[in-house]
Design brief:
Layout (H helix, E strand, L loop, with lengths): L4 E8 L7 H19 L4 H13 L20 E7 L4 E8 L5 H11 L4 E3 H10 L10 H11 L5 H8 L5 E6 L5 E7 L20 E4 L3 E7 L1 H4 L4 H10 L4 H16 L3 E7 L4 E5 L4 E7 L5 E3 L4
Parallel strand pairs: 3-4
Antiparallel strand pairs: 1-5, 1-11, 2-3, 2-6, 5-6, 7-8, 8-9, 9-10, 11-12
The protein binds aspartic acid (ASP).
The site of aspartic acid (ASP) has 16 residues, from β8 and α7.
Length: 299
Amino acid sequence: MRAFGIVADGGAGGRRRPSRRRVMAVAKSVELGYCLLEEGKSAVDAVEAAIVFLEDYPDFNAGTGSRLQLDGVPRMDASIMEGDRLRAGAVAAVENIKNPIRAARAVMERTEHVMLVGEGARRFAVASGIEEGEVRTARRIEEWKRNLCKEHKHRQLLESIYGCETVGAVAIDRQGQVASGCSTGGALFVLPGRVGDTPIVGAGIYADSSIGGVSATGLGEDIVRVVLSKSVLELMEKGSSPRMALRMVMNRLEKVTGGRAGAIAIDGRGRVGVWHNTEFMSYAYRMSGRKVKMGAGVK
Ligand code: ASP
């Protein structure tokens, strides 16, 4: 029987070990996706369901819990890709959408485009029947105000508070299709309109069913420069295991950009890889015939 399964993450980075509640939520998103795969649903369905669950969970920096940019407005990025025909969809700097990953899927399936941004993306999402949603959770506004008062150099500030609760998922279904997805409120305190790696195909995500899939998390300004997800898949294509390929690209990221990130991957044989050069990263995965595994990624 062909291996199927799903891996998800709740972001890399942070100064504190992710709470058990957060790790359990990632595990729950994996169980949701896994149930769909078991029923014979597609990898795209599983990735979307896992990410929607995490977007609706205010502890994560995506959807409902998204961070606020410098002007106090949350703008979200999300992307999804299916690896059979290399179709992809993304939204960037979109406001007031409950589930940006649904909007990204609608871009992939209902348009000839790969990415929509800003107001155009929002209007398209609403017209596609995707629920609108206010993001300003009280916790996020407090966090934004606190940081607004801090005197930091911008880069230092970015590094201390980037994403770290962004969400992502990669799945392989019974038919062997691979899909990857990612969703984020980006980094706190960035210039209005800033977009990271998450909606950029090749950087934040990549999927090719003949090789596997990857989803990245960490400071987007560094991740885009090493085209992280596609670089990992290229090494996997040459024979590296997902874990080894992730480790090699993460080493290069650290050496060249000084960046810190994490990523998850699955290959066509159903092997899972999780790697990060940050201190923490919450993740969970479940492959066919196995129990769910989870961790806070303590190195
Ligand atoms: N990659 C996201 C961004 O830079 C943040 C994160 O994954 O933590 O927007």
